[in-house]
Specification:
This protein has about 475 residues and is an alpha+beta fold. It is built from twelve helices and 18 strands.
């Protein structure tokens, strides 16, 4: 009764009615009257209902304003993120539904409390949870809570693929992929314009060339035009063509015959100073080829009245020939493009050149630089190997080397080359497979597709040549 008395006292007081002490007996009697007791009972019920209503409204507002953060998604990538009502403290929800996920390519599973799917659009997007909480009447409307989901764009989709200018005097195809017999082996080679060039419609700077020579030798050439040089696309093309032209010259074809006897002496360990004579032959022959390429570039620059450095290009080339005693491989390299040969069972790797790398990437050298021919290290740019057999001869530009090997120290590691071959065989994010088989009719298309692999920060031209 005391509680009821206080309730009415407070009610009267709020309306300016103060019960004086000499009216307290009358007030007590007033509270005991039947009709007033009924009103008092209803008043208490209304008070309880009012508080319950407020708690419900407060809880609804709490849920609507509660910050919910779920992991960001990326367009085109499978997505799975927890969306757990119990974790959010929503155990008092008596009904709910989620709308808006399907339009994003996603669905919600109440069974495992997850949002899954493959997002189809990017942006700061929202979906809605419609809900009712305990205490609401059954016929009450659902309340809406919007939840932000950030879906990042597919990085690949940010790059444009604009055609290069076919009217440019030094234009060349944005991509070339070829598969062809070469000596007793086959060559698979692809050169593709990098995303950084394609997105602005500029040119492929890399180039390659190969040729089966009339004396049993075969030559493969790769050149990477410097991105900072305005005419490097022409420089790389001239460099590759120049090497092939040199070794096709009748005088060069004839001079290479001397190597046959030197190989036999080397294999049988007969003759004095055989190794020295071999090294001298490689140095003289390949050195003349490299120097002739340099002079051709110099002549072109003069004729076009442009600085020679505008044709700046790296250059690597390998000649190979099969003898009874095995394969002879001769190599030359300037720049940051590696040449490697893997033994028959892919358990050993032999590097046929060292690459020009420097601190902060400033060490790259180009065939256009006259100083490389006077440098004391010039003789070390040549290589000779006589191998019983090999599985793969691999040459690449830094557009392949940088993302796949990252650092120079990885190149002598056979495990890295085994990983590289596994990558080609489909062990990559996109599951893109290149079947290195002479009977594969799709081998060119497969390599072309593989060359589009995604590597953050690596968007340069890519050239890869594989002799197998």
């Amino acid at each position: 009764m005391a509680e009821a008395k206080q309730l009415v006292t407070d009610l009267f007081k709020s309306n300016g009615i103060i019960i004086p002490e000499h009216r307290m007996k009358l007030f007590d009697h007033f509270l005991q009257e039947e009709q007033n007791l009924a009103i008092l009972h209803q008043l208490r019920k209304n008070q309880e209902q009012l508080m319950a209503n407020w708690k419900t409204e407060d809880r609804i507002a709490e849920i609507v304003q509660q910050p919910i953060r779920i992991p960001n998604a990326t367009v085109g990538k499978p997505y799975a993120a927890p969306f757990d009502f119990e974790k959010y403290g929503w155990n008092d929800l008596v009904a709910f539904r989620i709308e808006g996920l399907e339009a994003l390519g996603l669905t919600y599973s109440a069974e495992n409390n997850q949002i899954t799917g493959v997002p189809t659009q990017s942006g700061d997007l929202k979906f809605s949870v419609f809900f009712k909480v305990e205490g609401q009447p059954e016929e009450a409307p659902f309340h809406q809570k919007e939840i932000l989901l950030i879906i990042n764009p597919d990085p690949k989709g940010l790059w444009k693929n604009l055609a290069s200018d076919r009217n440019d005097p030094y234009w060349k195809e944005d991509e070339v992929t070829l598969f062809a017999p070469l000596g007793d082996r086959h060559l698979l080679v692809s050169s593709k314009r990098g995303r950084s060039h394609a997105t602005v419609g500029s040119f492929r700077e890399d180039d390659f060339a190969f040729k089966e020579l009339p004396n049993g030798w075969n030559v493969v050439v790769v050149s990477d035009g410097a991105g900072s040089a305005k005419l490097s696309r022409k420089g790389s093309a001239l460099a590759c063509a120049g090497v092939v032209s040199y070794f096709l010259d009748p005088a060069s074809v004839e001079s290479m015959a001397e190597f046959d006897s030197l190989v036999q002496q080397h294999a049988s360990q007969t003759g004095e100073d055989t190794q020295k004579n071999l090294n001298r032959f490689v140095y003289n022959t390949l050195g003349k080829a490299a120097f002739q390429v340099h002079k051709q570039l110099e002549s072109f620059a003069k004729a076009q009245e442009v600085p020679l450095k505008e044709l700046s290009s790296t250059l690597i080339f390998t000649l190979f020939k099969k003898y009874d005693v095995g394969y002879a491989l001769l190599s030359f390299g300037v720049g940051d493009c590696p040449i490697a040969v893997l033994n028959k069972d892919v358990t050993e790797v032999t590097l046929l050149n060292w690459i020009d790398v420097g601190e902060f990437g400033g060490g790259t050298r180009f065939i256009t630089m006259p100083e490389i021919f006077q440098n004391e290290k010039f003789s070390t740019r040549f290589g000779f190997k006589l191998l019983d057999d090999f599985s793969y001869l691999i040459m690449m530009s830094d557009g392949i080397y940088d993302p796949k090997f990252v650092v120079e120290a990885s190149l002598p590691d056979i495990a890295k080359w085994q990983e590289f071959l596994a990558d080609l065989q489909g062990q990559n994010e996109d599951k893109t497979t290149v079947e290195l088989s002479t009977k594969n009719p799709d081998i060119e298309a497969q390599l072309s597709k593989w060359m589009d692999f995604w590597s953050p920060g690596n968007h340069d031209d890519r050239t890869l040549a594989i002799v197998f």
